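We give the chain.
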Amino acid sequence: MTFFLLQPPSRLSLPRFRAPFSRPPFSSSCKTFATIRSSLPFLPEKAKFYGELQAAVDVVERACRLCVDVKKSLLSDKGRILEKNDQTPVTIADFGVQALISLELKRLFPSIPLVAEEDSSFLRSNSGDLQRVHGHDGNSLVNLVLTAVADKATGADDPLTSDVVLEAIDRGGKDAVSFDAQPATYWVLDPIDGTRGFLKGNDALYVVGLALVVDGKIVLGVMGCPNWKIDILSAGIRDRKTGDCETGIIMIAHEGCGTWTRRFFDGMDKFLSMQGGWQQCFVDSCYMVHEARFCIPDSQTWDLIPLSALFSSTVDDTKDNDRRTILLLPTCCGSLCKYLMVASGRASVFILRARAQTIIKVWDHAVGVICIQEAGGKVTDWIGTELDLAADEAGRRIIYPSGGVLVTNGRLHNQLLEMISSNFRVPKRVFQRQFTSKKLASREFAPVSTRWE
């Protein structure tokens, strides 16, 4: 049985999906995607989901262009910077990227649902507040999103309208799809991971991340990082601040085909052609913990990590460290840029501690997992179990890693698991499908001592 993914829908409507999508996705040919400009670094015969990856690369590349264009406009229009109810900065780009990618995926793959970060509730419910605070109403805000999307969208069957854009955003929202216990097939999107990085300037990173899950397994992923400095991929840490360099990369991964990157801009900040230029990347070869380069979340400090009982940390890369000190790379912002750092060999380890008050979202990790694995690395929780994408059975939006998430080059993984277990009691959590996400999220880890509380 196959999905007929590439039959265009009669209109851009957004039906409520219900899982399971247990049939294997249609393996499309290159000819079907003749309008897609991107070329991949491996042959279609080697990649079961070649067409899906080709489409994902193209739409993420256009989403990155949208981000760059919107960010330039922010310099003269501060009213386009908003805050969501949870105080996380969100921009026209955040909504625009989700709308753009949702529209394109719905056009090409109407049978596959989308699990994404945003919904349109903010845009729909705050028109009065927007007029009072920012000097424009909600409709004009939606029109700004519409304008950004229309400039990058291709092949729409119907003209884009505000309603179409809002429905496209909601296609990835929390109420758009309901899954069951069966392995499911769906896209996972983080429109902008690291929105604070988007707002900070060219020295901070943000990532557009898109992954495809087929029958419960991540099979491909694409990350676009417009602010990435190309010399990071090849230069040593101490060369980080030298001169001007080309910026921006696209990172892709497909099961069995490796992880690859390609630069995004030339030296004059002009977008490059999306044809060719791919380079395969691998995790680093470090096998000594004290020589490893670590990343941790922007919201956490080293003393919250169990390894701090064994190692102190420094951000000073100008001198050699002793065996009791590790180098901590200051990498802002979001989780996906840390995955990108490890997959490209720039960092050796990314470690995140799960906190009872913080929900870990699937879109902050899914695309990173496939990129790490195909680059030769490993991703588990703190007891060595792979991340369970189906733990949030109905929504597939939340993951519950025991203790936290450990991302490594593979060589260091078992050593670090042993060090963590010797300094932190991580109980194995048994998920029962009848539990709601709220009940699961309220469960807390039991630390050895109050130092980790």
